[in-house]
Amino acid sequence: MSGAPVVQSVGVYQQGDSYVNIRVSRGLGVACVAAAVAGVAWMTTDVLAQANPVYQERIQTMRTMGGSFRPIVGIVQGQSTDLDAAATSARALADAAKRIVAQYPAGTGRDANPETRARPEIWSNRAAFEAAANLLAAEAEKMAVAAATKNADAIRAQMGPLGQACGGCHGGPAASGGTFRFERPS
């Protein structure tokens, strides 16, 4: 009997008018748990994010900014007419951009966390980084003001300067990495 898998019930679910008893072998259950744990570990892009909240804040800020562009770009490209969503997103973008400089304090680079994707140039060329981040914050604020007018032409007009400000850190082809673009540690 040592070779027989141990099967246990993990739940009874209603499917239409009948009930289905979900059963899995212990080995499959362990594999599912291991896969879930691996998935959570994979989704955590910064190993020390839980130990030092600044890492998680940086990740969340960049995700907020990236997501905020969707409704704005929809207006610019004529794929959307939802000016309210664009205004809300532009405000979120501007608020997030204002936090960038403070989220990269000294001592939070690869010396403290070898897994961080923040490039060392953020700290070694601090003045240029702060200038680029502050320009982005200023252009994002102008986008928020333009979007608050609910005028698609004003949003389109501000998209160029905002895009150029994003390029201050992320400019150039992906292979070049831009000056401050995140990168995978080697």
What does this structure look like?
This protein has helices at residues 26-43, 53-76, 83-97, 121-124, 126-148, 152-170; strands spanning 7-15, 18-25. Mean pLDDT is 76; it is low at 5-16 and 18-49. The protein is mainly alpha-helical. It has a two-stranded antiparallel ribbon. Helix 3 (83-97) packs antiparallel against helix 5. The protein contains 6 helices and 2 strands, in the order ββαααααα. The protein is 55% helix and 9% strand. It folds into 2 domains: 7-43; 53-176, Cytochrome c/b562 (Four Helix Bundle (Hemerythrin (Met), subunit A), Up-down Bundle). The radius of gyration is 23 Å and the shape is elongated.
Low-confidence stretches: 5-16, 18-49
Q: Rough shape? A: elongated
- Rounded radius of gyration (Å): 23 Å
CATH C-level class of the largest domain is Mainly Alpha
Reading side by side through the largest sheet, how are the strands ordered? 1-2
Sheet-strand content, in percent, reads: 5-15%
Ends: how far apart?
49 Å
Number of strands: 2
Structural class, from secondary structure content? mainly alpha
Number of helices: 6
What pattern of helices and strands is seen along the backbone? Answer: EEHHHHHH
The main β sheet shows up as: 2 strands, antiparallel
Which architecture name of the largest domain does CATH use?
Up-down Bundle
CATH-defined topology of the largest domain: Four Helix Bundle (Hemerythrin (Met), subunit A)
Mean pLDDT: 76
CATH level 4 superfamily of the largest domain: Cytochrome c/b562
Share of helix, binned: 55-70%
Task: Provide the number of structural domains.
Answer: 2
